[in-house]
Amino acid sequence: MVKDFLEGKPLRHPLHPMLVHFPIGLFFLSFLFDLASLVFPSQMYLVRDSFYAMLLGAIMALVAAVPGFVDYTDIRSDHPGERTATAHLILNLIIVGLYGINLGVRSSMLSDPRIRTGPFVLSLVGICLLCASGYLGGRLVYDDGIGVGRHKRHMPPPRDTIHLTVPIPGADSVFVPIMAAQQLRERETLRVEIGGQIMTIAKIDNQLFAFQEFCTHRFGPLSEGKFEGFNVQCPWHNSCFDVRTGKVTNGPAKVDLKILKVEMREGKVGVPLPRQIKST
User: Fold this and answer.
1) Which SS3 state, helix, strand or coil, does residue 100 take?
2) Range of the domain at 107
3) CA-to-CA distance for 210 and 194, rounded, in angstroms?
4) Of 109, 131, 150, which residue sits at a domain end?
């Protein structure tokens, strides 16, 4: 499948982070040629070499943008990193456009002994924006886990979080029905938020299990993890937990998961929560 290839699943590594090294390196190389032309104006080839390095960088930026856009479309709508990803995307479009203008300006200056002020300033601005965009890209991977662990998914991850707000009173708790859980297929997950508490509902061996959504190691989304028997593997750093008990079965996590009960009441599947969990 084309999308799987662009996401790097056959390679077990996302394509976009690998490809972006080429335009970044080439744009910086072009800037270094510009600086060298100011120091050594007798070297007539430096301005020309800067132009071709920039041209190749722009081409590679467009190539890297394809898997990058596919990665962007794979971000779920309620993911906290979506806004950062949108800013990263817009910034990259501005950078490519800026370098496109720069190439047009430089095309008639290839024989100059040194770079002129206009295109040099455009390159300097481009480098600054490139650093800002690179910072945002790093945040997407290291802080938000975008693009991490796709090859470990064996079922489609939930696209959205279901927000539930109307509990049914019980004796010492509130029972929150989760009707969508009854439609889950084997090893499929559901992400649910109730009163600020986010949990995962998973169907394993024809049984439903509920546990906290975020890994106790670095908060990876367990609803996007891989299941081996009754163990869920975090898609970020491979920590494993028994969904029946919450116990850590493989590190690097050291703290057990919080487990919730899944019950059937009056023909409805749901979870009982302590009364201090307020509906919003």
Assistant:
1) helix
2) 2-150
3) 13
4) 150
Q: Report cis status (omega within 30 of 0) of the bond before 274.
A: no
CA 39/CA 47 separation, integer angstroms = 12
| Averaged pLDDT for residues 231-235 | 91
- Total of domains in the chain: 2
* Domain CATH for 230: 2.102.10.10
Domain presence at residue 90: yes
Q: Hey, what amino acid is at 117?
A: T
Residues 113 and 124 occupy one common structural domain: yes
Q: Considering only CA atoms, which of 49, 48, 57 is closest in space to residue 24?
A: 57
**Residue 279 counted as domain residue:** no
- Which pTM does this prediction carry? 0.70
Torsion angle in degrees (nearest 10) through CA of 178, 183, 184, 190: -40
Task: Report which of 45, 186, 33, 39 is spatially closest to residue 119, judged by C-alpha positions.
Answer: 33
Q: What percent of the chain lies above the pLDDT cut of 70?
A: 91
Q: Which of the listed residues 150, 174, 208 is the one where a domain comes to its end? A: 150
Strand arrangement of the beta sheet that strand 173-177 belongs to: 168-169, 173-177, 268-274, 263-265
Residues 52-110 pLDDT 10s: 999 999 999 999 999 999 889 888 777 778 899 999 999 999 999 999 999 999 999 99
Read off the amino acid at residue 86: T
